[in-house]
Amino acid sequence: MSQLDDILEEYEFLDADERYRLLIDLGRKLEPMPEALKTDATLVRGCSASVWVYPVAGNGDALHFLADSNAAITKGIVALVLAAVQDQPAQDVAQTDIAALLAPFDLKNQLSSNRTQGVPNMIALVREHAARIAG
């Protein structure tokens, strides 16, 4: 079972307020992203909050991402996206349908459109990084 599956299992049993708390908690658990990496080059466009995503070399051919947001719920959504692809081979990440993996969370109906509008851009950026690294 993947980390995302574990999160979904818990998420499905929660009411709306508890789901917000779960997302906030996921965001708090993200690996810290150094301030020096929070630049215009790592900024995800189209998000209502500031979101930064930066790929780093992982173990072997695995791709590891550092990410952050200045909004707690958005940071939790970032954590969900990363849970779908973190520490997987770049080639796999480039081909992963992240949106389909996140579909069971029904974020569009659970959260305001402001909080989810940048998700497709974040997914695209993660996949572009992976495709570039996979060569």
UniProtKB/TrEMBL annotation:
Q: Which InterPro entries match?
A: Fe-S_metab-assoc_dom (IPR003808)
| Fe-S metabolism associated domain location | 12-128
* Name of a matching Pfam family: SufE
Family affiliation: Belongs to the SufE family.
Its name, as the record gives it, is: Fe-S metabolism protein SufE
